[in-house]
Amino acid sequence: MARFFHCAPVSLDVGSVILPGDWGRVLRGYCPDSINGLLYRETVLEHVRHQEFQDLPSRLDCVFLLESERDLMSYMQAYARTSIGYEVEVDVVGKVVHRGSWSITLGPHDRAMEATARLAHSYWRGEGIIAGQTEVLVHAPITVARRLIELP
Questions:
Q1: From the CB of residue 39, how many other CB atoms can be counted at a distance below 10 Å?
Q2: For residues 151 and 69, which has the higher predicted lDDT (pLDDT)?
Q3: What angle do CA 130, 138, 118 make, to 5 degrees?
């Protein structure tokens, strides 16, 4: 089992299993009158993946992980202040794993489609990764090994 880090807006016990695809479940629940930059960004990312990177896992069907506790803190401070950080275990043997820059995907949501598509290409190519800003996508359940942090 590989060790990674994950944050979630819910309190989980050690041993809890998080199934892949929850992000897609959330996005698929948006109604047309609630479309916003988040849904727009994810739609462009998924379109580019489907068109040119079909061998990579869909963000809509994966679990998002971080590679270190420091990366987790950086992500939570920037974008997930109300989440709780966890150390998790996942079996990645035989799974397609993608590493991309969360700073590319979580930037401003007001970019034109062409600019968003260029960033999506960079994300799926694994370009522009800055130390501490790498997210790992894997289509596999993860198990909470340890509760780490809650930001004040």
A1: 16
A2: 69
A3: 45
Domain 2-150: which CATH class? alpha beta
Q: What is the pLDDT of residues 33-79, one digit of tens each?
A: 555 777 888 888 999 999 999 999 999 999 999 999 999 999 998 88
Cβ–Cβ under 8 Å, residues 5 and 72: yes
**DSSP-assigned letter for residue 29:** T
The whole model's pTM is what?
A: 0.81
Report yes or no: 7 and 83 within 8 Å, Cβ to Cβ.
Answer: yes
CA distance linking residue 78 with residue 101, whole number of Å: 13
Q: Are 22 and 139 in contact (CB under 8 A)?
A: no
Q: Residue ranges of the domains in the chain?
A: 2-150
Question: DSSP code of 110?
Answer: -
Is 28 within 8 Å of 58 (Cβ atoms)? no
> Residues 18-46: what's their mean pLDDT?
77
| 66 closest CA partner among 127, 118, 2, 116 | 2
Helix (H) / strand (E) element for 119: namely: helix 113-125
